[in-house]
Amino acid sequence: MNDALALEVKNLSVDFHTDGGVVHAVKGADISVREGAILGLVGESGSGKSVTSLAVLRLLGTPRAKITGGEILFRGENLLDKTEKEMCAIRGPHIGMVSQNALSALDPSFTIGAQLVEVIRLHQGVDKATARVKALEALDLVALPESKRRMKAYPHELSGGQRQRVVIAIALSCRPELLLADEPTTALDATVQKQILDLLLDINAELGTSILLVTHDFGVVAHVCTDVTVMRRGDVLESGTVERVLTQPQHPYTQGLMRAVPHLRLDEATRAVPRADRRLFEFRTEEKEAVDVA
């Protein structure tokens, strides 16, 4: 990892024009993702973190949303200056996207294999047979069990964790330099969540993929990320390395968030998401000590 930037968002502003007036969803945000790093973009619901990530790909999803200022620099070029055709050549081959809900991201009418093959053929211009080989490689990359058989499966036939692996496989099928992951584990149970987070770590380590991870969970940040940026109500409040921000937060809002976190283990070489059974054990120990003192 170095200090070169895979993505630099400068003074970004995004407004939503609603019937009730203009909502300033993002207000002059500055966000940087270092090459080979994993940046956690953290904030409560409505903080503007997901809007920021969608703005990078210019996929805000409604004509009422407008990027009103700033720059989004990728590979030294401002994405806001690109035509829609040029953006289509960037989405997929250079910047991949993993959405929060894999079931809605996948088409229920087509098999997993058909959806992977379509993406690969669209962006890489290969024949169907070659695309199928590449699709299997992508599923193997994300460690989907029985990948060859799963190629013939429909989304509803897979578990939540398996569907999320497929969505990640689609995003990685063209080997993008940057991966945007918007709350990729929110809908999953704790065990599967850790598997997906570990998969993101492996992708970062083995492929050198830079990752922008949108989350509201500081436990996820502690486990996965190298850097963190905190947002609230469209403003960026604090940025820095995970170790610095999580152990020495400077902004009062970040300090308040950290006080609300039950426990974070940052003193180990391998950081881990706090385990519920571990916290329960600590609670029982404290309860027993209190009884003994009484």
TrEMBL record:
GO molecular function: ATP binding; ATP hydrolysis activity
Superkingdom, natural source: Bacteria
Cellular component terms per the entry's GO annotation: plasma membrane
UniProt-listed SUPFAM superfamilies: P-loop containing nucleoside triphosphate hydrolases
Keyword Glycoprotein carried by entry: no
Any single biological process term in GO: peptide transport
CDD domains: ABC_NikE_OppD_transporters
Subcellular location(s) of the protein: Cell membrane
UniProt cross-references to InterPro entries, sorted A to Z: AAA+_ATPase (IPR003593), ABC_Ni/Peptide_Import (IPR050388), ABC_transporter-like_ATP-bd (IPR003439), ABC_transporter-like_CS (IPR017871), Oligopep_ABC_C (IPR013563), P-loop_NTPase (IPR027417)
Domain ABC transporter, first and last residues per copy: 7-258
Membrane topology note: Peripheral membrane protein
Keyword terms of this UniProt record: ATP-binding, Cell inner membrane, Cell membrane, Membrane, Nucleotide-binding, Translocase, Transport
Family designation: Belongs to the ABC transporter superfamily.
Name listed for the protein in its UniProt record: ABC transporter ATP-binding protein
Provenance organism: Mycolicibacterium hodleri
